[in-house]
Amino acid sequence: MSSFESNRPLPKEEVISLYKSQGKIQPRGVEGYFSKLRWLMVWLTQIYFYGMPWIQWGGRQALLFDLDGKRFYIYGLVLYPQDLIYLTAILIISALSLFLFTAVAGRLWCGFTCPQTVYTEIFMWIESKIEGNHMARKKLDDMPWTPKKFGIRSSKHFVWLLFAFWTGFTFVGYFTPIRDLFIEVKYLSTGPWETFWLCFYTFATYGNAGFMREQVCKYMCPYARFQSAMFDKDTLIVSYDKERGEPRGGRSSHADHQALGDCIDCHICVQVCPTGIDIREGLQYECISCGACADACDSVMDKVGYAQGLIKFTTENALINRWSKQEMIKRIFRVRVLIYGLVLTIIIGSVLWSLTFRNSFRIDVVRDRGVMARLADGGMLENVYRLNIMNALEEGQHYKIYVEGLNNIVVDSDNLEPNKTIAIKATESRWVPVRVQIPDGIEKSGSHKIMFRIESEETHEIVKEKSTFIVPRN
């Protein structure tokens, strides 16, 4: 090593933080078109969420994911664990719908219907009613702890916890019949798992909406990170019109307005942003497209006598080319959107077709592993099976069991009623042990294919299920 290299000063160490610490954001209240639309979505989603578990359908809860009974009730539809393909299809449809919606309208989902946004909006509304506007809240933050501050903060957190518990209770009510759950909560007799999930979702709502707020969107939600893969220059986003707004600056009665843009640099767009960004610096992954900055800017433009729309929902191409709304709408039907729409339509159509024409009951056939084959009375060779018959209808059904595939094959069960049928109650499933017999010696040893055929007496539907009959070696 040369003397020059040995005397060279070492470079300074640079620490790069993956988490940017910032103070608590107290967004300013705002009124306008997008604010009203956001609250409309809050009301619609929460009326559905809190009200749906209480609605009855045919004497049972309309929407219930009964994990203990291994049945999912979705209005008039009853699904079993064997119908997992439908759950998979719903997840695929949800993902593709989000891709399609994002390609067209950006992060409108985040700004108007995402549960994190909705509950944060509700919690901030409660906070504003108890602590006051954003300036009063900042003042309260800076105050030392006094009996008055303690009383205000205690009241806020009590209401937050009460609302969070109601939310957790409702969520658990989608998995445990909510009327029964209400009685259990009333008398403090909930089971261990119900108690755990009630506490978990209560404190998850309380923590996420009350404390973490924008941090969930910025650091925990993966959607913010991969949204750019679905954006293009024709995606609808919240944008600041730099050509019109720059150079920004304050106004006075003697200012030369010709030398300035329309932006008066009031920073209200930053003050109302729930994630604390400045939209004038361009599109950022923290932006959830709530439109609060657009409402705030429009109100300022009205006051200073300028046209609205300095900050607005538009596309990059529309902003550059100064397109009209009609020209911007024409670009919606582009290749990416058409592909998403076509695939989504095919999947939705396939699921609806499958649900419309699916059988009213299902069967699973399980061989008795304890006894492969045995010789019964009367010189009959016998295999034992267990049939799981699942009635997906809201009425009780009677089923007849047949078997075919071998000569002189018969089926019998001690569970058969006098009319040789099996009764299954509405939306119930039942395991039925059956014995299948053939005369000994008429078939060669080995495994033989057979077919169970189950017929409903009420609907006359027939469901078949394959199995095997074992003939042992002599």
Structure description:
The protein has 474 residues and is of the alpha+beta class. It has two domains: 23-358, no CATH class; 361-471, Immunoglobulin-like. 42% of the residues lie in helices and 19% in strands. The chain contains 17 helices and 16 strands. The strands form five sheets. Strands 8, 9, 10, 12 and 14 form a five-stranded antiparallel beta sheet that branches. A four-stranded antiparallel beta sheet has the order 13-11-15-16, with no helix packed on it. It is elongated, with a radius of gyration of 33 Å.
Number of domain units: 2
Portion of residues in helices? Answer: 40-55%
Structural class by sheet pairing and helices: alpha+beta
Helix count, DSSP H or I runs of 4 or more residues: 17
Q: Which spans of ≥5 residues are poorly predicted at pLDDT below 50?
A: none
Gyration radius from CA atoms, angstroms: 33 Å
General shape: elongated
Mean pLDDT score:
89
Instruction: Describe the main β-sheet briefly.
Output: 5 strands, antiparallel
Query: How many angstroms separate the termini?
Result: 89 Å
DSSP E strands, number = 16
Percent range for β-strand residues: 15-25%
